[in-house]
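Appendix B, example 12.
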Amino acid sequence: QVQLVESGGGSVQAGGSLRLSCAASGYTYSSYCMGWFRQAPGKEREGVAIIGRSGSTTSADSVKGRFTISRDNAKNTLYLQMNSLKPEDTAMYYCAASSTWCFLRIHGFGYWGQGTQVTVSS
């Protein structure tokens, strides 16, 4: 049974940093594409960044140069380092996994965590 558990969210002032983690279990982590997505109140869920089995990454334009996705296959853990945070980054952040899809769109990701809240104040 695939389980994804996010942690590391919190409240921070604009310009600050946070590091999100996603602990994965129940499947062969290294063979899955992993991603971070977010959903702000009243908005649709959107892709933030993905990382493939080979370590290749894709990020949304809105976070390029500020957020970095990485994975540790030995620890079955996904990370999102978020720097220079802005109020518009405020959202619930979700970790997701896919065995067959590796694009920055939600539809191909079949496994999701419960999310961790990130709040950025101005």
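The longest strand covers residues 18-25. The mean pLDDT is 96.
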